[in-house]
Amino acid sequence: MERPSVNLKRIKTDIEKLAEFNATPGEGVTRLTYSKEDREARNYLIDQMKKLNMEVEIDGIGNIVGKLEGNNSKKASIMTGSHIDTVKHGGKYDGVVGVVGALETVRVIKENNISHNHPIEIVIFVEEEGATFGSTLIGSKVFSGAYTLKDIKNHRNSDGYSMYEKAKEFGLNPDSIDDKENKDIKAIIELHIEQSIVLEENNLHIGIVNDIAGIKWYEIKLEGEANHAGATPMNLRKDVMVKSAEFIKYIETVVKQSKSDSIVGTVGKINCKPNVPNVIPGEINFTLDIRDVNKKSLEETAQKIEDKIAKDCLESNINHEINLMGEASPIKLSNNIKEIAINKVKSRDYKYKVMNSGAVHDVGVLAKNTDSALLFVPSVAGKSHCPEELTPYEDIERGCNLLLDIVIDLAQ
Amino acid sequence: MERPSVNLKRIKTDIEKLAEFNATPGEGVTRLTYSKEDREARNYLIDQMKKLNMEVEIDGIGNIVGKLEGNNSKKASIMTGSHIDTVKHGGKYDGVVGVVGALETVRVIKENNISHNHPIEIVIFVEEEGATFGSTLIGSKVFSGAYTLKDIKNHRNSDGYSMYEKAKEFGLNPDSIDDKENKDIKAIIELHIEQSIVLEENNLHIGIVNDIAGIKWYEIKLEGEANHAGATPMNLRKDVMVKSAEFIKYIETVVKQSKSDSIVGTVGKINCKPNVPNVIPGEINFTLDIRDVNKKSLEETAQKIEDKIAKDCLESNINHEINLMGEASPIKLSNNIKEIAINKVKSRDYKYKVMNSGAVHDVGVLAKNTDSALLFVPSVAGKSHCPEELTPYEDIERGCNLLLDIVIDLAQ
Q1: Which residues in chain A touch residue B236, judged by CB atoms under 8 angstroms apart?
Q2: What is the pTM of this model?
Q3: Residue B173: count of CB within 10 angstroms of its CB
Q4: Which of A293, B109, B195, B285 is the most buried (most CB within 10 A)?
């Protein structure tokens, strides 16, 4: 039998159709968890799965799983999927590419009558972006058992309603989530847009992910002395704007000098008080987001930055606080699936790179207990979470073909 | 005759009384232009001047002038005063010290029957702080003719009402301001708190001001590329937060390296977009306030900063805008009055310093046409425009004695 491939026309239809379930037409795609648009998109996808005779189950928080039985119903499932929720004014491709790729994979397997022992499951995780309930990856965390009923009751939207309450209102049964049995999954593969410019810059088609970076996220506060910008000589200032500038530059320098070439450090947020042109700032708050797949270099670099801030503030008589707001360890993805992916990508003659992911993804949550894999397709200019988000269809086609090849292999 | 001196008890009474006309008791002093508290303070001061048989005139915008005739009514006046408006939650001393010092000067001259040929005038300028109508020194600018009716109609409060409208509502006749004749003033002297820590750091009692610094005020905008903080490698970033940090540090460095020891440069305001911890900033706006009494060094240093920003942004492919929002030339105060002040301060045995003012003051506005002088008394810890603003009464007493001595000398 000739090697089967995906049908780009169907993929296009799915992606364009899903983009219509959008609360902000003309201003990017906005499809928030449990919204009207979310329900429409879910119904469309459930309908597509049912047309393929898949058995569809929805858990208490709204994760959707469609199952295509294999020859041996006792075998563990091969799972693939992603998410369909978006940020506000996001793009058409983030999450959707992986869901549509999963759907197309099952279609091709069905229409070619490809025999497989393992069941194949499509998964659509809810609230990956955290745009509604303030925290990312909630669906996959509930799915994996990392989050319980208590967490769902604690995560609230901007109106103060919990995800638990909103799930009930949406017609789900969130009380059931602590009772569910763990599913028997052999492997999970997620196809996703890269959301960066590494593939594009290197003219590559596919990224095969080794590790997902660990993260440390800080809030740093410096307190100096607000004073008159005209009347206070330079040598009598306690200027936390200048001090913050030194630290922000230091962060970039120490991260770039690290032996690890996968480490990144970002100051994404800064607030100044009183924030008036003619007053020397009395207080600056800024964030630090530092990530690496190498736990040792992450820890060491974070420590260097903490030490530098503490030492310089002491010397300059500046009060400071360094608050670690959150952290997560790096995640190792499946070596086995990576090797399969490399074989498949070579046989398709696609240009690829084994790389790391600086962003978190649902498969990372499952990686502790399940062989997990993450595949990237390029993002034009690295843009994501914005209306300009774009992955050309020929790249999506390649990603879906690779996903198809891997699922067929694993499901044998 | 023994040398007359001020009566500290009366000065204290005036200062404490004025502090009662306050919209925010317990949270600093708030006395905004044309407010109820402003009217009460104005009435108190007008009352005090009338008790001294002074002739009180109020111009169309609310500047108050009280006149004590001299032996020769054809001579030009010696004027002294300051302002009584405050910022929100300001202090008890900013402006008030100069007004109370002027009042006490006239009291001492009257009670000691000190003969003087020149009339002596007390002036209280409105809206010096700009806390209500968004621009400083409005009263003195109208007084000097630098501002006309048109300007008063253009300056608006946060509710959108013009100073013209509010002046009318307050019972003034702003339509008259373009018609007034220029007053014949021989000299004007303003006693003011320093609002910085130079006098305190050097254990001095009095500052005699040579020059008021010129200023250039900029808004600077950098546009990079907002991208995912985890997914974007360090070498592929266009991070305007890091670039801004470099410029802020450069500004401090180049200002400190200037041959001029009077130059100061301040970045007091910064705003970041989207200002989210896990997104590399796509846009940063920050201000630059640069001042010096030396026009050449001010211009040269400002040019260096402009050039550096333009050059680095070009090299880094970052869009930038450098907008000069306002500027004023340095102001030379009266050498003649300075020499008189130095003689008087020496004969009082006060510790003094001839210094510059980084802050603007009403006398600076009049300096073009009139011999103008500015005297400073210390600010504890340099604090001003805040509830903690403090000048010890013994320092205020010294300042008022010096003012008295100078006015008596000039009025002969």
Answers
A1: 196-198, 201, 382
A2: 0.85
A3: 12
A4: B195
